[in-house]
Design a protein that fits this description.
It comes from Streptomyces haneummycinicus. The chain is of the alpha/beta class and 196 residues long. Helix content is 39%, strand content 18%. It has a single domain, classed as Rossmann fold. It is built from 6 helices and 8 strands; from the N terminus they run βαβαβαβαβαβββα. The radius of gyration is 15 Å and the shape is globular. The two termini are 23 Å apart.
C-alpha cells in the first residue's frame, strides 16, 4: 500500500512513516525543506519536496498519483501566527483534498483538533486555528469522491504510546501521546469509511 502524508516531517507524520515502513507499506512524506529528506529516508519513507502553501492542485495531484491513501498531518505549528493558520491548517488541507480527488485517491484521513469548529469565534491565534481546522474538516466532509475520516485528537504529548485508544464521535478532553495518534492513523488508512 502506498500512503502519501502531507506534513511529512511533523512529529506525528515521522512516527506514522516509521510504522508504515515497518509493516511493509510504502510511505511518502511531503516536506517543505530539502534538508529534512535524510531523516525521512532513515525511517524508510520517500521524501517529496513540495511547499503546500505555494503549490498548485495539479502539482500536488501529480505527487499523489498511484497512492492508495492520503493523510493530511500538516500544521502551521504552535509558534506560527494567524496568517499561517489560514494558509496551512485550512488552505493546504483543502488543496491536499482537492488534489486527492484529482489523482483518484479515495482514502483520505485528516488530522484535525479536538474543538475544531468552522463557527468558532474569536481572534486569538488558537481561535483562528480551531476555526481553520473546522473549515478544513467541513470541506473534506463535503467531498463525495473521498472515503474520508476526520481524526480530532486532544492535546498532543511526547509520552510513550499506551495503545489504549477510544474512537468516538464525542469524547472528554485530555492529552494523547503522538505515538498513539500515529498508530490510529496507520489503522485508519486501511479502513475506508466516512467518520468524523
Amino acid at each position: 500500500m502506498r500512503i502519501v502524508i502531507a506534513g511529512g516531517h511533523g512529529q506525528i507524520a515521522l512516527r506514522l512513516e516509521r510504522l508504515l515502513a515497518a509493516r511493509g507499506d510504502e510511505a511518502a512524506g511531503i516536506i517543505r525543506k530539502p534538508e529534512q529528506a535524510d531523516e525521512l529516508r532513515r525511517l524508510g519513507a520517500e521524501p517529496v519536496v513540495l511547499d503546500l502553501e505555494s503549490a498548485s492542485v495539479e502539482e500536488v495531484a501529480e505527487r499523489l498519483e498511484g497512492a492508495d491513501a492520503a493523510v493530511f498531518a500538516a500544521g502551521a505549528g504552535p509558534g506560527s501566527g494567524v496568517g499561517r493558520k489560514e494558509t496551512v491548517d485550512r488552505a493546504a488541507a483543502v488543496l491536499f483534498a482537492d488534489a486527492a480527488v484529482r489523482a483518484g485517491v479515495r482514502r483520505f484521513v485528516i488530522v484535525s483538533s479536538m474543538g475544531a469548529d468552522p463557527a468558532h469565534r474569536g481572534d486569538e491565534v488558537f481561535d483562528v486555528y480551531l476555526r481553520a481546522k473546522g473549515e478544513a474538516d467541513a470541506y473534506v466532509r463535503g467531498l463525495d469522491a473521498l472515503d474520508w475520516t476526520v481524526l480530532r485528537p486532544g492535546r498532543l504529548t511526547d509520552d510513550a504510546g499506551t495503545g489504549l485508544i477510544r474512537l468516538e464521535a464525542h469524547t472528554g478532553s485530555g492529552p494523547i501521546p503522538r505515538d498513539d495518534v500515529a498508530a490510529v492513523l496507520a489503522e485508519l488508512v486501511d479502513s475506508p469509511r466516512r467518520r468524523a
